[in-house]
Amino acid sequence: MTPRVHPTAIVHPKAQLADEVMVGPYTLIGEHVRIGRGTRVDSHAVIEGWTEIGEECHIHPFVSLGAPPQHLQYKGEETYVRIGNKNILREYVTVNRATVFGGGVTSLGDHNVLMAYVHIAHDCHVGNHVVMANAATLAGHITIGDHAIVGGLVGIHQYVRVGAYSMIGGCSAVGQDVPPFMRAAGGYRARLFGVNTIGLKRHGFSDDCIRLLKRVYRVLFLSDLRLAEAIKQVRDEFGDSRDVQAVLIFLDGTKRGICKGSDEREEE
Fold this sequence. Notes:
Oligomer: single chain
Helix content: 10-25%
Number of strands: 28
Strand order of the largest sheet: 1-4-7-10-13-16-19-22-25-27-28
């Protein structure tokens, strides 16, 4: 089935719309936009710049994709937004294209849900199966791992990394990296509050695996050891675990530092 475009929509003749794409009233689609099969774009959306959208996505009203980055050094260069398949972008979501010096691509993987008013700034990379609740905001150059959950009204600082299967509680200000499998929360500066137990159970992690990650958490973030010493101890004692290795690799790659650890009971 050929694309179905509402007569009030404005679609540049060079834009590429695959079969079964639906474009709603008063939507604007620019010259360099490419939209994959079966994607639905509702009314009043604006998709501009060099933006690629995959298959079977749902773009809700008033979404803005591919606008220039909010960066003073950007001078109109050809940079990109690339969005994968089967994503849901709710009302007023904004995804800005990248900067040249930041790699040239802002990306969103597959099967993600971005709730209303979510903002993804230039040069961010969001993985797969990520949920970002209402008004969660990413500054530039942020990476979000697969299956992470970012709560409503969360603000994340530039260059921060959020690991896979982690969860950030609502209204948190995140200034440092959140390791995989962990929970973080805190209004002034987020802290870690143990392992994301409920989330891991929902994704099929075994009780033994979760217990192991809790032991690792206690050594890394609750012991009196310096972090480098704690990492060495964890590597020596638990390094055979693939999940533990994922945590250690993440810690080794930090540039902004890691959120401080707290006893998980402090959050209750």
